[in-house]
Design goal:
six-stranded mixed sheet; 2 domains; Aminopeptidase; ten-stranded mixed sheet
Length: 449
């Protein structure tokens, strides 16, 4: 392993160069911007590293980049790396201190959209494999890559790819694309992801905007939508839709033990986001349990009327709100959307139009799964301090991988948790990119042996 880890140090400048190339290639899935080009670039970088790569396509959707390298040793063990090459939109532009696709390096940080989520994570996996090939010309187990281009818009088609290419993607374990290093440089090993239901609620009153003096006669759709949204949850975050929590199961004793022992720096968290207290004034264990296993109802956006600088006395004709619900295991997105529609109708808001963007179920891996111990052993050696996390508060298509491939999924922290992911001035720490690459090398070796 010393020879392999030395290769990581030797190749690190090439890793950064390839990451800069990926950052400089926009790949915003929400706008279908640069998706095909980034898929081709990703495949090219993998081939350059010695990994056989192939672009898989389904009609009308973003391609998946598949990579594979087979071990020459007598082994049938296969590990799969799941990542994505698409990124979030960069708006608002005015808050970026540098070009959002610059890949600019300042001190220990490389800036740009995708630097952490997820192009930075992706190159650490590619260069871990390259380190084995450069040191020995072989890898200790079979390795596959599934790199999609729609993760940031909900992975609507990844299950179609998984079903069509089930045999090609078959594996014994999945290293997930997601992972954090906390404010004290402790690597977080994640055993699950929350699910997501993303909807748009809208209403229309008049055929055009009107002078606001007519508000005495014309109903304002913004008020109508505000009143409807207010019925969805209370001030403490509890969702008020009937049977919303019906299938939710309590934490197991093992889960509670892990959650209780997981450190969470409330003050550092509040300082980073500039807030004074949490929803419902949660503290201690309740705050940690909420992050891991509490469903949410969040207003992601609300648009109606005039929103630019200055004043305009207008009565809007329409109002639109984007709502995302985080789901936990056993919550079925299809059931939840029916409950939402029924709730609005029963509360007198049957006129509100509900558009469903996507839904994903939640997934969790048992802490007793052998893959967890392989990952923990590698993270212990690389980062020194490791935290086991029952489930991340975020969402990804983990459920689809577990359901279709039947393989356990584990994420391991390598991205600084305050790296401004999905925000202006996103960055990756160079020291963590190198550590994560070494951690991936150790995971591959542990998994193989």
């Amino acid at each position: 392993m010393n020879q392999i880890l030395k290769q990581v140090d030797k190749n690190f400048h090439n890793l950064i160069s390839d990451l800069q190339s990926l950052i400089r290639q926009p790949s915003v899935s929400a706008k279908n911007e640069g998706i095909q080009e980034c898929a081709k670039l990703t495949a090219k970088i993998m081939k350059k590293a010695g990994i056989s790569s192939q672009i898989l396509s389904l009609k009308g959707v973003a391609p998946v980049v598949f990579g594979e390298i087979k071990s020459r040793k007598n082994t049938d063990k296969t590990i799969l790396f799941y990542n994505h090459y698409d990124v979030q939109p960069v708006e608002p532009f005015s808050l970026w201190e540098n070009d959002p696709f610059s890949g600019k390096i300042i001190g220990n940080k490389i800036f740009g959209r995708g630097s952490s989520d997820d192009k930075g994570e992706l190159v650490t996996r590619i260069f871990a494999v390259k380190s084995f090939l450069d040191a020995f010309g072989d890898v200790p187990c079979n390795i596959k890559f599934v790199i999609e281009g729609e993760e940031e818009t909900g992975s609507a088609n990844i299950e179609k790819y998984l079903r069509k290419y089930k045999k090609k993607f078959s594996c014994d374990g999945v290293i997930w694309e997601f992972g954090y290093v906390d404010s004290k440089n402790r690597s977080i090993i994640g055993l699950g992801m929350k699910g997501l239901l993303y909807v748009e609620l809208s209403t229309k009153e008049a055929k055009r905007d009107a002078h606001s003096s007519l508000a005495v006669l014309i109903k304002n759709p913004a008020w109508r939508l505000v009143e409807a949204i207010k019925t969805l949850r209370d001030n403490n975050g509890k969702i008020l839709i009937k049977d919303w929590y019906k299938e939710v199961q309590p934490f197991s004793k093992t889960d509670l033990k892990i959650i209780s022992s997981e450190p969470f720096d409330e003050n550092a968290f509040k300082t980073e986001y500039g807030i004074k207290d949490f929803v419902g004034n949660k503290k201690g264990l309740d705050a940690k349990k909420a992050l891991v296993g509490a469903p949410t109802c969040n207003i992601a956006g609300f648009v109606s009327g005039y929103t630019e600088d200055g004043a305009k006395t207008v009565l809007p004709a329409t109002a639109v709100a984007k709502i995302d619900f985080r789901l936990v295991p056993k919550m079925d997105p299809k059931k939840q959307i029916q409950r939402l529609k029924k709730h609005l109708k029963q509360k007198g808001f049957g006129d509100i139009t509900v558009k469903v963007y996507h839904g994903e179920a939640a997934a969790r891996t048992s802490p007793n799964e052998p893959l967890v111990s392989f990952v923990k052993k590698a993270a212990d050696k690389t980062f020194g301090k490791v935290i086991i996390n029952v489930s991340n508060a975020g969402t990804g298509p983990m459920y689809s991988f577990v359901k279709v491939l039947g393989a356990p999924c584990v994420s391991v922290g390598g991205t600084y948790m305050f790296a401004r992911i999905h925000s202006p001035n996103e960055f990756a720490r160079l020291d963590l990119l190198k550590k994560t690459t070494k951690c991936m090398c150790l995971i591959i070796d542990n998994f193989a042996s």
